[in-house]
Specification:
Blueprint (H helix, E strand, L loop, with lengths): L1 E7 L5 E2 L5 E2 L3 H21 L9 E6 L4 E6 H6 L6
Antiparallel strand pairs: 1-2, 1-3, 1-4, 4-5
């Protein structure tokens, strides 16, 4: 199934993912969200622009039904897999 990783910005705006990606199930989607969020957080820190609270993925299925909200703060709190 195709999932779209829209990003909710700190100002509340939604940046839509126009392409999406194929995943077998929500477990794979969540793993990908974790790795991607860690990468985005690291890039922000390296650029001197840390990601603020309230930012995260709103992951929708191919029918644009919200399947998962993944705040980037969750990736910052969990050690483990690197991007």
């Amino acid at each position: 199934m195709r999932y779209f990783f829209h990003i909710r910005n700190e100002d509340g705006r939604l940046a839509k993912d126009p392409e999406g990606q194929e995943f077998a199930d929500l477990s794979e989607v969540e793993d990908h969200a974790m790795a991607s969020a860690k990468e985005i957080l690291a890039e922000g820190l390296l650029a001197g622009k840390p990601v603020r609270s309230g930012v995260g993925f709103e992951i929708c299925d191919e029918n644009q039904i919200l399947m998962l909200r993944f705040p980037f703060s969750e990736a910052a709190e969990k050690p483990g897999a690197q991007p």
